[in-house]
Amino acid sequence: MATNISKIKTSRSAQKKFESLSPFEIKNELIQLADENAQKSTGIMLNAGRGNPNWIATIPREAFFLFGQFALDECRRTMDVAGGMAGIVQDKTGIAKRFETFLSEGKKSPGLELLKKTYQYGIKQHQFEADAWVREMVEASMGFNYPVPDRMLAHIEPIVQDYLLQEMCAGKPPKGKYDIFAVEGGTAAMCYIFDSLMQNFLIKKGDKIALLVPTFTPYIEIPHLDRYSFDVVNITASSVAKNGFHTWHYPDAEIDKLKDPAIKIAFVINPSNPPSTAFPAKTLKRIADIVKKDNPGLMVITDDVYGTFVPGFVSLMAALPYNTLTVYSFSKYFGCTGWRLGAIALHQKNVFDDKISALGDKQKKELHNRYETISLQPEKIKFIDRLVADSRQVALNHTAGLSLPQQFQMMLFASFCLLDTNNQYKKLTQELVNKRLKLLWDGMGIEMVPDVMRAGYYSEIDVMVGANHFYGPELAQWLKDNFEPVDVVFRLAEKTSIVLLNGGGFGGPEWSIRVSLANLPTESYSKIGKGIREILMEYVTAWENSKK
Fold it and tell me: Which of 22, 91, 170, 547 makes the best surface tag, with the fewest CB within 10 Å?
């Protein structure tokens, strides 16, 4: 019996009701419980339930605000009215020379240096015409026009493409170019992609899809909405190390499920969330070989937001460029969740466009009617441009696109890393999360299995694996018989004021918990590790007492 364990406020029956909710909804209840406990004790609430980082990239922001001073002066050159009114920049010549003067006369700072190098990068690497390049930056920073082109500004797109190819392809991109659609963060990208896949008959209600799990909760929830009702095949990261602990890699037998040609699309987060582990080279190759030999029409959506936290990261956009549409968010790496900066990247030669070209006459006619108001040849609109149009219900395509100041800040984040040839910023972020990860596991008193593919942005801890490893199957069965899987996170909140999310809500093991290594002061993670150990040892003590 479990009567030997201390009581908590949230009963087992109440926990069962919460298990039907998303982890992000359960979190609200956990925060309230943790806060109540903190008020009764001398402790403080530690909320490691959300992935919002507690650092920011300073130099690109400094460059953003510094350039704004130049841009405002340029606007005042056109019109300057007392009371706070200026004009929009009309000059097409001379602006680059004035910018060069601004750079030479400005007070030296990291932000000024980034602006100088970014300006030179565009001219040297992409042969930008200097006046047009600076004028676009002024227009973007001031935001005085609609986005034109609507998908992404002409000078900003190639710089963001360079960044993605550097970071997602380990600097060895496939041949050919990618088109980029700047979007309001990764969540907007997900919404746009699901919608356009349906609108363009690339997938239909009830189709079979593959979902690589554990995964970010919305990828689990969206396919089951009535509009989609997809037949979901889970591909599970079920590999374990010799000590029985999860490696969070995918065994060949799971990856081989993609051989089924009935699977139309695969949704991937790489590195994963919450296990925070990237595909090794052999998994990338196996997926590429399967697509080539068994399922050439497979569409792959890969969300690679955590890729920059893995040294030498390689995305499926590099291993399988024809079949892969890539989603990337700047939010985690640069500490800019509030900016809502994301990008969708698609190779110019891709399966999505070819599938649209191969549709039947009836479907092609429907799509012609859908897009005929924005093109004289709607059948030639590329899929990525259909994403843009669909994001504004087609009829409002003329006002589509990410706001220009957002695009400008995105470009500065990208150029910052392109010009950081020593990877100084990358080392800082990777060292920070890995230090926190070590403190967490040391606090639990468990040796962590090394893995070069681990991002370290999150850590997923399976209580059942620990129970089996240290105490055997008897304890594991006792836990199952006497507690709900979410008891761990409720007990942590109520007794230690620590808020973590339940891993089962991410399609992971039911008894696992997710810790964000991003959003708390570094020293907090030792306390969280010790708090987890405290709760786990309370189970062990109660179990041992129950046998007496």
Answer: 547
